[in-house]
């Protein structure tokens, strides 16, 4: 027994005296714990990043789908397209079943699938085992957690509190000869969006004036819903200056176009109860000719700005869409300077972008993420 106590005493003393071993044990344990915590932090950071990306994908998909909510096939195609732009390489983040058209009740803040009128789209984006694309883990795999499910949802709806009526002031000068088909597509895309923005209250109104050096009222304000077929037919018949029903070819002067749009709004059955937008679509600086041959370019620019001022004074907003394949900065600056009120300026050197630009004016003014 005495010998046993001596051995124990010896070992204890050796352990107290040799502390390097104890420190190594504690240090090793601490490193394992730190690595575990760091690993979990890496995994959590990754999950947060992917969750944000998935939410952005859901938001974009809902907005894109809502633009064409009345066309179920196009709605799903557009939603998937924009979802995958935000999470490239993953075609499974959005399925047809997770893209649903319905009615958003702005007062109750509820979404009813298939409700009437259909003014909203709900999407649910997924990275999950069920959809075959779960988010993998890094360090959590050591704990037996190889993958996790992540979801994000969004609802986009047209907001009746921000209703708009629109008049397009379309340039139909000969310089638009190659691009007139793009102009027709652009006006149709905007009309479709405006029709879909109807929320069950006052139908949105849409009209069009055409201008060269002079202007003509092509279509007075009509309901984008009940007069949709008539307005679509008018867009199909849109042609260049000098042709039947079109203004004479006589240079380019934006002021008559804006003034004609103001005149159209004066006969609006909605009056000034809702927002009113004049959308000027053109492709260059003023060009004195014909009835305007006595004016200088600068004088025509002043007159155009005065017309825009008159529109703003009556509570109208002026949007401008500038197309010019040579990307003329001087002409672009002139068009940008015509924006008024809530209006915005858009520019492209590619006429095929015109439908997207006019469509975006509709979505910016009426479409919202609501949930």
Strand content: 15-25%
Largest sheet: 6 strands, mixed
Determine Rg (CA atoms, Å). Answer: 31 Å
Number of strands: 13
Shape: elongated
User: What would the average pLDDT be, to the nearest integer?
Assistant: 85
Helix content: 40-55%
Helix tally equals: 9
Low-pLDDT regions: 1-17, 26-35
- How are strands sequenced across the largest beta sheet? 9-8-7-10-11-12
The CA-CA distance between the termini, in Å, is: 79 Å
SSE class: alpha/beta
Order of helices and strands: HHHEEEEEEEHEEHHEHEHEHE
Describe the protein's architecture and organization.
The chain is an alpha/beta fold and 371 residues long. It has helices at residues 2-17, 20-67, 72-86, 180-196, 228-236, 254-266, 297-313, 329-336, 354-366; strands spanning 99-105, 110-113, 120-127, 135-136, 147-148, 150-158, 164-171, 205-211, 215-223, 275-282, 316-323, 345-348, 367-369. The strands form 3 sheets. It has a 6-stranded mixed β-sheet, sandwiched between helices. Helix 4 (180-196) runs parallel beside helix 9 and helix 6 packs parallel to helix 7 (297-313). The longest helix has 48 residues, at 20-67. The relative contact order is 0.11. Residues 1-17 and 26-35 have low confidence and may be disordered.
